Amino acid sequence: MIALLAPQISLSLNGKPGEGVSVSLQIILLLTALTLLPAVIMSVTPFLRIIIVLHFLRQALGTQTAPSNQVLIGLALFLSLLLIQPVVSDVYTKAWEPLSKGDMSATDAWNAASPPIRNFLLKYAREKDIRLFVELAHRPRPAKPGDVELDVLLPAYVLSELKTGFQIGAVLFLPFLVIDIVVASVTLSVGMVQLPPVMVSAPFKILLFVLVDGWNLVIGSLMKSFY
Fold first, then answer.
1. Which of 157, 153, 80, 149 lies closest to 110 in space, CA to CA?
2. Is 46 exposed, middle or buried, given 0-12, 13-18 or 19+ CB atoms closer than 10 A?
């Protein structure tokens, strides 16, 4: 007779009495955080506004795949890291270092890391959007900006950045739209019906963008909008 013995698996939240979470649970929490990290980077950092503006710029130029998505995402990521670096350094100094040394509990570390993040988000979140999510969450109206909770502030920041990105993108579209209208009028007036006006206007738009040093102007103005 063959007896099959099933292995017993036990999960302990504490490695030893009085210690923090076990290494296994720390790995699980770390992997969970890594799965959420791309969404956090794309939503609650300057990456959101930058990638929207760069997408509108490519559409306005009429170049379908140049620059490619990988190039635009890489550029937006590096610019976002440059802008968010002071906040990351502040969080690392005030929260992560004491936590890693054992001088601070996880709760205290979160409380220490929240103010720099909250101050950054408050700079760009519109009051109208904050009020909307406070009402949706059925929270009492905060007495001061520092009282706004992060679960309300995060979606308000995303909504504000979406509006700002679309506003900048619409302004970028206007000069290129004028070129498209002029070229379309000229081609129709001379009877070039079979030639798409987009193919004729694309070289002129790219030439204009290069002559005015468009990348320097766009990136410079976009970065200054965060300061």
1. 149
2. buried
Q: pTM for this structure? A: 0.75
Give me the amino acid identity at 193. V
Contact 205, 61 (CB under 8 A): yes
What distances in angstroms separate CA 112 from CA 45, 85, 181, one per listed residue?
19, 17, 55
Query: For 88-138, how does the pLDDT look when each residue is reduced to its tens digit (9 = 90+)?
Result: 888 878 777 777 777 777 777 777 777 888 888 888 888 888 888 888 878
Distance between CA atoms of residues 186 and 9, nearest Å: 77
Q: Give the residue among 212, 184, 208, 182 at the shortest CA–CA distance from 198.
A: 184
- Continuous segment of H or E residues that includes residue 73: helix 69-91
CB atoms within 10 A of CB 49: 27
Q: What is the residue type of 100?
A: S
